[in-house]
Amino acid sequence: MSTAAGLGSPSLAFLGGRRRTRRSLTIGTTMAFTFGQYAALRPFLYHLTSTENAARLAGGAPMLTAAELMRRAGVPLETANSAIVRFEVDGATVTVMDQRPLREANIAFQRGWDMRRLRTELRARVYFWPGDAEGPIPMGRNHMERYADEPDLRPAIVRVKLLDLLAHNPGLEPEFCRFNSGAPRFSGGRASPRGPETFQRAPLCNFNPGQVREVTFLDAVRLPPSAQWASTPAGPWT
């Protein structure tokens, strides 16, 4: 989730949608954890959006993925290739962020994945940065601060407790990622892997809770009444 190549960064969404389930594939050592165990380490989730979207989301409209919003707007996915994209959905202006093109040279595709599959997976999710009451993890905070001076955006940040979000969306299971999935970069001279293990369910994770960088939901998620809003990752929260 980064402005560098952020097709998979926290997408902004509202209006309704389908829900699907998926079995994650995991190879190697399993470091399974429960949602309670994860919430003990990272009790809060953070999501960056725009003030235009925030009013609808705070009013109970569900957060949708970039793919679903573009489908409803009749916008071809391949035309969304900048940091901030705006279009009309049912008469309302919608803002979708972090849609810059991916750099294929930075990616090591695994087990049958290619660029088309990765784009599809990234745009099929709603993203949150994990954190605690003080704010998101440093990667998330840095991402949000980069948007603070964006002239074409009035940022709004939602903070919600993970367990409240799950209770408000029964049957919805998050998938965890140990990367900024939409911003692959070389690390230690190696391209960043992307494949079936990029997004993993808690019972099958082959990384531990402290390694999680993104918490994602397929298709749609609704914010509970306890969600709070601010203009910066440090608050104040209302």
General shape = globular
Count the E strands: 13
N-to-C CA distance: 25 Å
Structural class of the helix and strand makeup?
A: alpha+beta
**How would you describe the oligomerization state of the chains in this entry?**
single chain
Percent range for helical residues?
10-25%
Strand content: 15-25%
Can you give the mean pLDDT?
Answer: 85
- Mind summarizing the main beta sheet? 7 strands, antiparallel
Rg over CA atoms: 16 Å
Q: Indicate how many domains the architecture comprises.
A: 1
Q: Which regions contain 5 or more consecutive residues with pLDDT less than 50? A: 1-28
N-to-C series of helices and strands = HEHEHEEEHEEHEHEEEEE
How many helices? 6
